[in-house]
Design a protein that fits this description.
mainly alpha, 81% helix, transmembrane, transmembrane helix
């Protein structure tokens, strides 16, 4: 296995675990406070249904939605970068920085910390742009 594929695989695994953690975070708040917005969940636990999810669950859902807008792009661009054998130094920095920035983004989102959430978002976006340029160069 190439070094770049190894790093890409580690980043994909870390991002998967981060997204899994968001799901667990939501479940924790739902179960701890027995507060369910879905009728079937409330019925199963013998609780009244809430009109909406708790604020912590809503915030986690927004972080999850933001991940779904950004992380699949990394998966695709990263796989192309590995397949096209883009320069290992620059690509490795983009992979690691993107992963760290997305983890930071989630932590900042859950904590409601600005401007750090926006900064981490733009750092990750810059990494995607770097990967796109590297892929473009490799294709030309």
């Amino acid at each position: 296995m190439s070094d770049l594929l190894h790093l890409y695989s580690l980043c994909v695994l870390a991002l998967f675990l981060k997204m899994l953690a968001i799901s667990c975070y939501q479940g924790y708040f739902r179960l701890r406070y027995r507060a369910f917005a879905n009728l079937e969940d409330a019925t199963f636990f013998g609780r009244a249904v809430h009109a909406q999810d708790m604020p912590q669950v809503q915030r986690a859902a927004k972080a999850w939605a933001n991940d779904l807008e950004n992380i699949p792009l990394f998966f695709m661009l990263g796989a192309l970068a590995v397949a096209l054998q883009t320069p290992i130094e620059t690509t490795s920095v983009a992979f690691a920085t993107f992963t760290g920035a997305r983890i930071a983004h989630t932590l900042m989102y859950l904590g409601g910390w600005q401007p750090w959430r926006t900064l981490s978002y733009f750092v990750a976006l810059a990494c995607l742009l770097v990967l796109a340029v590297l892929i473009g160069i490799a294709l030309l």
